[in-house]
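Open question from group meeting: does this chain pack into something compact, or does most of it stay loose? Before anyone orders reagents, we agreed to write out a predicted structure and look at it together. Recording both the input and the output here so the notebook holds the full record.
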Amino acid sequence: MKLPVIKHLTSFIEENDQDYVLETIETLEALTEVPSLKDEELDVIGELISNMYGAIEVSKMVKDGTPKKEALNNFMQRVLGSIDK
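Structure tokens returned:
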């Protein structure tokens, strides 16, 4: 996951609507079923999907009243904490 990408997508959600990101996730998930995709291509799609889900989580925290910078930091701490386990 890349914080700058999540931050950008969070801004996109604020300016537009979360539904755009959710529909994009669905589209990318459908693409992963193409049998001719290489592992590297699947990795890129997976990274995009992860960043989009991260942006949705951060966006929810911001809607609940958490300042954006704090929401981003809290999310990344959760991610890093789950990797360390």
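Observations to bring back to the group:
The chain has four helices and no strands.
The first helix runs from residue 3 to 15.
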